[in-house]
Amino acid sequence: MSLSDSEQRELLDKVRRVHLELTGAFQSRVSDSEYCDTLAGYVLNSDAADYRNEQRLRALELKLDRVLAAVEEAS
Fold first, then answer.
1. What is the 3-state secondary structure (H, E, C) of 58-73?
2. Residue 16, pLDDT score
3. DSSP string spanning the chain?
4. Integer angstrom CA distances of residue 3 from 6, 7, 13, 23
5. Which residues lie closer than 8 Å to 37 by C-beta, 6 or more apart?
6. How far apart are CA 35 and CA 28, in angstroms?
7. Which pLDDT tens digits describe the chain residue by residue (75 residues)?
8. Are strands 26-27 and 36-37 parallel, antiparallel or unpaired?
9. Whole-angstrom distance, CA of residue 39 vs CA of residue 55
10. pTM score
11. CB 27 within 8 A of CB 10
């Protein structure tokens, strides 16, 4: 089964739009940010930021546990 000329053009237009969404650079919507990247770049940076935040949270939890233990010992 082959596509008509109009179907081929429609398919090509869709592929071009998808390609632009995946490879085009997008400006951050955060005010005062100059960050600009592709969709994949945003996803990877979001993943990295989430990992760093998890590490910070674990470090804070450990410090809080130590403070609470010191308070209990002093009581």
1. HHHHHHHHHHHHHHHH
2. 96
3. ----HHHHHHHHHHHHHHHHHHHS-EE--STT---EE-HHHHHHHHHHHHHHHHHHHHHHHHHHHHHHHHHHHH-
4. 8, 6, 14, 27
5. 25, 26, 45
6. 5
7. 799 999 999 999 999 999 998 889 999 999 999 999 998 899 999 999 999 999 999 999 999 999 999 999 998
8. antiparallel
9. 25
10. 0.61
11. no
Structure tokens at 21: 């969404």
Which tokens hold the place of 25?
A: 């650079």
Token pair recorded at residue 42:
């945003």
CB 38 within 8 A of CB 29: no
